[in-house]
């Protein structure tokens, strides 16, 4: 696997994935073998949700690496690259089988990471990683440097949100409403990605058409185009995440900041013709707003 090393970012990403996923699998196996997951339950951690979520994340990473590695390093005359590509696809296939087993055969229902809201955050982080490994040709253009900063800002917050939702006790210790923080984070992320989705194509591809000789494996222009493509993908992911969170559908949690208890209708006997009924309702609304 390490033969024929390269400084190419896709190769580095492949090496990281093929190290990270087996190590996480080994750690999970050891924990389950010795029953250490009981200790993790003390932190109100849903172990089944975590393992299924990791299988989903690992399948996503290994399949994407198999595709990119085969694109860059596999050819008819590259026996070693072709063999690695075959095993890379086999690795991704095995992780996908584990996901199918957990979700459809064992019918495990995830509480966060293996459910849609948590895995959506994993997708956003994954696409951000693909943007980072594709970044090139931006250093001499200030507008593109701003785009890189835009890509960086939301990325470290995503794993923190995921970890906090997995560890329920940690979530309860926070001095603020995490769901409301996530909503604000999504609004900011959408605005940032709208900026990048406009600026990156303009300043990268203006007066820079695709070269006539531009093979997918070795063309810098094609890699720069991948940044634009993944920018739009992440913009869509963050926008859908924001809409689902705002509407509170598909397991996404609303912030609840716009919901107040309504006054009973009709008014209770003895209150209907009294101003105290209206003041009573106002007090209830004010109290609800204070609690939130």
Automatic annotation (TrEMBL):
Transmembrane segments: 12-40, 52-73, 79-97, 118-137, 143-162, 182-203, 223-249
Location(s) in or outside the cell: Membrane
MARVEL domain span: 112-250
UniProt entry tagged with the keyword Membrane: yes
Keywords (A to Z) from UniProt: Membrane, Repeat, Transmembrane, Transmembrane helix
Domain of life of the organism encoding this protein: Eukaryota
Gene Ontology, cellular component aspect: membrane
InterPro entries noted in UniProt: Marvel, MYADM-like
Topology of this chain in the membrane: Multi-pass membrane protein
Broad class of where this protein is predominantly found: membrane
Family listed: Belongs to the MAL family.
Annotated protein name in UniProt: MARVEL domain-containing protein
């Amino acid at each position: 696997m390490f033969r024929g090393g390269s400084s190419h970012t896709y190769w580095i990403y492949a090496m990281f994935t093929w190290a990270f996923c087996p190590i996480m699998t080994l750690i999970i196996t050891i924990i389950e073998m010795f029953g250490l997951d009981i200790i993790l339950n003390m932190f109100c951690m849903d172990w089944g949700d975590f393992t299924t979520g990791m299988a989903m994340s690992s399948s996503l990473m290994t399949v994407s690496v198999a595709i990119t590695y085969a694109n860059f390093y596999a050819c008819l005359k590259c026996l070693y690259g072709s063999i690695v590509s075959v095993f890379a696809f086999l690795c991704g296939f095995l992780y996908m089988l584990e996901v199918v087993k957990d979700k459809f055969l064992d019918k495990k229902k995830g509480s966060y990471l293996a459910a849609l809201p948590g895995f959506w955050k994993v997708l956003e982080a994954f696409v951000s990683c693909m943007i980072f490994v594709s970044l090139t040709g931006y250093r001499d253009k200030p507008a593109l440097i701003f785009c890189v900063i835009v890509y960086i800002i939301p990325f470290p917050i995503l794993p923190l949100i995921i970890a906090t939702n997995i560890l329920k006790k940690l979530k309860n210790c926070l001095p603020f409403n995490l769901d409301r923080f996530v909503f604000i984070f999504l609004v900011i992320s959408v605005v940032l990605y709208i900026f990048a989705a406009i600026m990156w194509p303009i300043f990268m591809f203006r007066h820079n058409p695709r070269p006539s000789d531009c093979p997918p494996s070795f063309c810098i222009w094609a890699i720069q185009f991948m940044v634009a493509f993944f920018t739009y993908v992440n913009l869509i992911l963050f926008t859908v995440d924001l809409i689902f969170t705002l509407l509170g559908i598909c397991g996404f949690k609303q912030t609840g900041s716009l919901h107040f208890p309504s006054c009973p209708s009709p008014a209770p006997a003895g209150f209907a013709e009294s101003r105290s009924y209206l003041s009573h309702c106002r007090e209830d609304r004010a109290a609800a707003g204070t609690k939130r």
